[in-house]
Amino acid sequence: MTGLRTERLTLTPPTSDDAPFVLELLNDPGWIANIGDRGVRTLEAARAYIGERFAKTPWFVVRDSRGHPLGMCGLVERDGLDCPDIGYAFLQRHSGQGYATEAARAVLAFARGTLGHPKIAAITAPHNTPSQRVLEKIGLKFVQMIDLPGHDAPSAYFTT
């Protein structure tokens, strides 16, 4: 899998070298509040998470023009959904700068064009309105609240 480029960002597949960043991201307050605590507390656990979670479907580390990692964006094959789910997470200190929208738009184009997926979904925590605005900006529409296997609470479901 190759990388993607946007006007301001480079998206590259994660490697074990990204473990320090992934460790920081998975323990960022925004990740924990909106996605959940994954219990990843060491570099070794972060490397394992990269191999187990991000290697199964297309995920990208989102980097700025200097190569600094800002967040991640990619696709998830999720139980309970009939199509891939676009997901993203950024370190809280990079919020509000349009990076999530720019990266999600690139991954959506990749999913539709390169991978040929006619339909893409997304879920968010019901309280995560900033993430919901990103989904609306890239053309997804809110459909309904849904219960998914492995989730303790309903999720807001969006699709193309």
Task: Give a verbal description of the structure.
- The chain contains five helices and eight strands, in the order E-E-H-H-H-E-E-E-H-E-H-E-E.
- It has helices spanning 19-26, 29-34, 43-54, 99-113, 129-137, and strands at residues 4-5, 10-12, 59-63, 69-76, 85-90, 121-124, 141-146, 155-159.
- The strands form two sheets. The chain has a five-stranded antiparallel β-sheet, with helices on one face. A three-stranded antiparallel β-sheet has the order 6-8-7, covered by helices on one side.
Nutshell version of this structure?
Helix content is 31%, strand content 24%. It has 160 residues and is α+β, with helices and mostly antiparallel strands.
What's the story with the biggest beta sheet?
5 strands, antiparallel
SS-derived structural category: alpha+beta
Low-confidence stretches: none
Mean pLDDT: 95
Strand content: 15-25%
- Categorize the overall geometry: globular
Total DSSP E strands: 8
Distance from N terminus to C terminus (CA atoms, Å) equals: 24 Å
